[in-house]
Amino acid sequence: MLDGMIVTVCGRVSPHSSRFHVDLQNAADVALHFNPRYNSGGYIVHNSRLNGVWGNEEIKAPTPFPRGHLFTLQILITLSSYKISANGKPFSEFKHRMPLTHVDKICMAGMVRPSLITFQYLEPHHPVPPASLKVPYKSIIDGGLRSGKVIIIEGVINPNGMEIFLRHKSGIAFYYSPRFDENVVVCNSYEDGTWGDEEIYELMPIQIGQPLQVTIFCSHQGYEVFVNGEQTHTYSHRYTNLEEIDVLDIRGDVQLSFVQP
After folding, report:
1. Alpha-carbon distance values, 138 to 98, 128, 222, 247 (Å)
2. All domains in the chain, ordered by first residue
3. PROSITE patterns under this entry (predicted)?
4. Residue-wise pLDDT tens digits, 155-164
5. pLDDT at residue number 128
6. What is the per-residue DSSP string for 99-135?
7. Gap between the Cα atoms of 90 and 82, Å rounded
8. What's the Cα-to-Cα distance from 135 to each of 129, 256, 261, rounded to whole Å?
9. Terminal C-alpha separation, the chain
10. Residue 132, Ramachandran bin (φ over 0: left; ψ between -120 and 50: alpha; else beta)
């Protein structure tokens, strides 16, 4: 691990979970043990294990990850500590107990179902203030897209659906639109003043009035879309100058609660 790296973990906690953990490790040593537990009302244990010996626990309550709910965990590596965000909000900080450069793997186990784990080199992400989450929502994507980039959108979608646009100066690289009246999701691109051929998918598992998490993972080949923890769509790049795709635009009948552009 290096200074400035962000580890993002998306998933869903089991409705009957007693605990799960996310560990940053080197061989048998654990640099960061992040351990939600659900007894005594729910809390988070932070710890490390060096040479087979666990250190002093650092505990914070209440847990930001309720049983049965979707979650986004982000760990920002800095020179002095791990800065941890839960669902877009700063949650805790854990000072390094071993050199961060020794950490070379992540381990996740317990009563949880992960949907996406990514590693990115980014500037620290600052949660968008609630007043800024009004729709239509528009944000700059710092540095544009690149392989490995993750965009996370959370909220509640209403009957008239919503539209997500990933834009560049002269067009739309990726358009994503759940449409309840047609019971489909439409994906497309807009280049040189013309819409391309639509790619149409079944609407499931998106439901009106229910919490929604849309995660868009940009790979070398295209966009992988996860909805509520399930990979639902793959859309191949039609516009390949990824660094020029630098605007996230969200419109429609949706109440946003968290956006990571």
Report:
1. 40, 11, 22, 7
2. 5-121 (2.60.120.200), 130-260 (2.60.120.200)
3. GALECTIN
4. 899 888 899 9
5. 53
6. -GGG--EEEEEESEEEEEEEEEE-PPP-PPPGGGGPS
7. 11
8. 13, 8, 15
9. 23
10. alpha
pTM of the shown model = 0.72
Distances in whole angstroms, Cα of residue 227 to Cα of each of 3, 104, 200, 221: 30, 29, 15, 19
How many whole angstroms separate alpha carbon 231 and alpha carbon 241? 24
Structure tokens at 169: 């100066």
- Here the tokens at position 41 are 């009302």
Do 234 and 220 meet the contact criterion of CB atoms below 8 Å apart?
Answer: no
DSSP secondary structure letters along the chain: --TTEEEEEEEEE-TT-SBEEEEEEETTEEEEEEEEE-STT-EEEEEEEETTEE---EEE-S-SS-TT-EEEEEEEE-SSEEEEEETTEEEEEEE-SS-GGG--EEEEEESEEEEEEEEEE-PPP-PPPGGGGPSSEEEE-TT---TT-EEEEEEEEEEEEEEEEEEETTEEEEEEEEETTTTEEEEEEEETTEE---EEEE-TT--TTSEEEEEEEE-SSEEEEEETTEEEEEEE-SS--GGG--EEEEEEEEEEEEEE-
- The total of other beta-carbon atoms located within 10 Å of residue 212's CB is 23
Residue ranges in the chain whose pLDDT is less than 50: 124-125
pLDDT at 124: 47
Note the pLDDT of residue 100: 86
